From TrEMBL:
It holds the Pfam family AMP-binding_C. Coiled coil: none annotated. Keywords: Phosphopantetheine, Phosphoprotein. This is Amino acid adenylation domain-containing protein. InterPro entries: AMP-bd_C (IPR025110), AMP-bd_C_sf (IPR045851), AMP-binding_CS (IPR020845), AMP-dep_synth/lig_dom (IPR000873), ANL_N_sf (IPR042099). PROSITE patterns: AMP_BINDING. Residues 21-365 form the AMP-dependent synthetase/ligase domain. Residues 419-493 form the AMP-binding enzyme C-terminal domain. SUPFAM superfamilies: Acetyl-CoA synthetase-like. It comes from the Bacteria.
């Protein structure tokens, strides 16, 4: 059964129509990278051209168009063009290996894949085999044909994201237009985004952090600065982008802010008025550096996941800053409970697994069995089981404790250790494998223990093997290759805690 909410989004117009109307109020606002910009007027024109190209697909409420292109004004226009057609967009990260992307596309089976010149060649063979139309930005018509705008239903599917899956196959997350509408409405109101702002978009469009960047910016009439893949990994370029575009609102994982801190040196960026961070713990040392670099900024720690979007936030004080930072308090439209090991609610002060329901919650996974497993029921109401163990203090503040499963967040990216292990164990020379995280330093480091009787296996081969199948964040930094079996607990399951705590005989 798919997850449902009893909340109703106040905006009854179709989500894309609302965005179009708001963008038309600030036609000269811009979307840009370090090398190109386009006005809202130009973005909407390109969106209309793309909408016309998609017109023959029809108005199936669950039809999906995939997009695999570098972040640019055209890729933003592509998202709007898909939404304005009454279709859902499925963004793919072009930095991921081809094997992973084509596997996702095989499962998704989109009628159209939108690409740029750089990504087109990677999918031409796949497109011929699958019968999928490739729509390339450089080959779009230059004029807008008179195609009527589709009227999207309020409950129509709007976006499809893919998260790490325990079987090695990414999970497909289905997100509806009202969920995006409810979220952008809260962001615009809470941060007061308006025409004087410029939001820096750091996360790939395939990552749920991009919902805030794209939709809250456009709905608020703010400019949008897009950090493409190379810029996003380059601290000096990120600083240059903030200066070039006069960025006032930053949103990313803390690891990206660390790049900025390392590049900024003694520089300050007083025009930045809000710094939002999510996806991984913020180190206190880094936070102190950021307070100096952004002297006028409000700092907000945001908690959420792909399945629910953001659900908790914490305004970080500059004086007496707690360490670690709490998750904070729930967003106004969020309902949550803590449950114990017997799935019974924990009242008042205490700890348990966090269950959440809200209007920004996903419709469900494409696999209904996964949806059922992720759904917790109380009094006939479905909650999303986050898998996060949290503590609620006497003041109602919520604090993160840890995970109750194999999901970890590295550099803001959610990674399933089971997925890494499944890929490693598919290698013909690997007998067993266990992935684990070393948290002994300031930054969590992903490692892997591999059991093999082969003298030919080495860490370089394993790294190259995984690079063809997994995103960069899921590639272990260190491989321990041993003739020993993976350490087991009393139930015969791999014991990651033992790997974290003890040294084993290795061969490299």
């Amino acid at each position: 059964m798919l997850l449902q909410t009893n909340f109703q989004v106040s905006e009854t117009r179709a989500f894309f129509e609302m965005l179009r109307e708001e963008m038309q109020k600030t036609p000269e606002a811009e979307v840009g990278t370090l090398t190109e910009t386009a006005s809202f007027t130009k973005i909407l024109d390109i969106a209309d051209i793309i909408r016309a190209q998609l017109h023959d697909i029809g108005s199936d409420r669950d039809a999906v168009v995939a997009i695999c292109a570098e972040k640019s004004p055209h890729s933003v226009a592509a998202i709007l063009g898909v939404l304005s057609s009454g279709l859902a967009y499925a963004p793919l990260d072009p930095s991921h290996p081809d094997t992973r992307l084509t596997s996702i596309l095989d499962d998704l089976a989109p009628p159209v894949l939108i690409v740029d010149d750089a990504t087109r060649s990677r999918f031409e063979v796949w497109a011929r085999r699958s019968g999928t139309q490739l729509l390339t930005f450089s080959e779009l018509p230059k004029t807008v044909p008179p195609v009527p705008v589709a009227s999207g239903a309020q409950r129509s599917l709007a976006a499809v994201l893919h998260t790490s899956g325990s079987t090695g196959k990414p999970k497909r997350v289905l997100i509806e237009a009202p969920a995006l509408d409810a979220f952008q409405s809260w962001v615009v109101g809470e941060i007061s985004i308006d025409i004087d702002d410029c939001v820096l978009s750091h996360a790939p469009f395939a990552f749920d952090l991009s919902f805030l960047d794209i939709f809250a910016s456009l709905a608020g009439g703010a400019c949008l600065a897009l950090a493409d893949t190379k810029t996003a990994r380059n601290g000096p370029k990120l600083v240059e982008m903030m200066q070039q575009h006069n960025v006032t609102i930053w949103h990313s994982a803390p690891s990206a802010l660390k790049l900025v801190a390392e590049a900024a040196c003694e520089l300050t960026l007083p025009q930045v008025r809000c710094v939002l961070f999510a996806g991984e713990p913020m180190q206190s040392r880094l936070l102190r550096q950021l307070f100096r670099i952004f002297p006028n900024a409000r700092f907000i720690n945001i908690y959420g996941c792909t399945e629910t979007n953001d659900t908790f936030f914490y305004d970080v004080p500059r004086i007496d800053t707690p360490d670690p930072l709490p998750l904070g308090r729930k967003l106004p439209y969020v309902d949550y409970i803590l449950v114990d090991n017997a799935d019974m609610p924990v009242s008042g002060e205490g700890q348990g697994e966090l269950w959440v329901r809200c209007p920004t919650m996903m419709r469900g996974y494409s696999d209904q069995q996964l949806t059922a497993k992720a759904t917790g029921w109380r009094d006939g109401v479905g909650y999303y089981r986050t898998g996060d163990m949290v503590r609620r203090d006497a003041n109602g503040m919520v604090h993160f404790i840890g995970r109750n499963d194999t999901i970890v967040k590295l550099s803001g990216v959610r990674v399933d250790l089971n997925e890494i292990e499944a890929c490693l164990q598919a290698h013909p020379l690997v007998d067993e494998a266990a992935a684990y995280v070393d948290k002994s330093g300031d930054t969590a480091v992903l490692n892997a223990f591999v059991s093999s009787k082969s003298d030919e296996l080495n860490s370089i081969d394993l790294r190259l093997y995984l690079m063809k199948r997994l995103p960069t964040a899921a590639i272990p930094r260190k491989f321990t290759i041993s003739i020993q079996e993976v350490p087991k607990n009393s139930n015969g399951k791999a014991c990651r805690r033992m790997l974290e705590q003890q040294l084993v005989e290795t061969q490299t």
